[in-house]
Amino acid sequence: DAGNNPVDQPNTHYGDAEEQDIIGFLNGSFPINDDGSTSFYVFGGASRREGVHGGNYRRAIQAQNWPQIYPLGFLPLIEPEIVDYSGTAGIRGVAAGTWFWDISAGYGHDKFDFNITNSLNTSLGPSIPPNQTEFYAGALEFNQFVSNLDVTREVEVGLAGPLNVAVGAEFRHENYQQHAGEVNSWIAGPSPDRAGGVAAAGAQVFPGFRPSNEVDDSRSSYAGYVDFEANVLSFLRLGLAGRFEHYSDFGSTSDYKFTARVEATKQLVFRGSVSTGAPSPSSSSPPASAPPGSGAVL
Fold it and tell me: What is the pTM of this model?
């Protein structure tokens, strides 16, 4: 970038980002009565993922660079750490020989930490310290507990196949959090940029979440549903479901889902669905906005 290399050097990342994952799963089922009609089951998983994702290269002559820190410019990197785990346990069985029932409870957690490396906060000046090249920019977190009761059976009603009838109830509790980053990841420091203008605040490539961006929202919901599905013709399967749900944060909603499956040939199948639903806690929470001139664009 500064003319020191006789051959132009690559200054960006192409293709898939570097990634390292550790993932594990568990799945099991165990009969709890003599005839095996009732069983206890459990399944779940856990993972830790780390990645390295490059933004746009900052050339040495650009105003947001300090050549005292990066004489040839720099490629800022986002290195996320994602921890995810969930588990579900339940009991299922058969009642009266025709009704299949299932009761379960599960918990899930996901946290996404934003680590910024090979970067700088232009507004902190050309010296280290007070400037730095690595920042913790905050995190997003989601937690959910859900419990279900489902009952199903098949009924002959004169169609091409039996009508599957299902009814059920659900309780769900959700929590969404947004955590602030370290101060230097978002602060607008006292230094102008090298051109004398207002310096971009926050870490280059991803300014951190501010304390004013922090969110800790929870809600609970109670729901009941009914579902019908059957092969109405030998090649056509239709489904219709309705769900009533009451949310602690915005009230009640009634939703539906319609599905269709057309088997044109044994080798060619068309499927489609249309449905309504309620927003998730993260989509209904206030957005985390970067400050003006923060250089948030990759």
Answer: 0.81
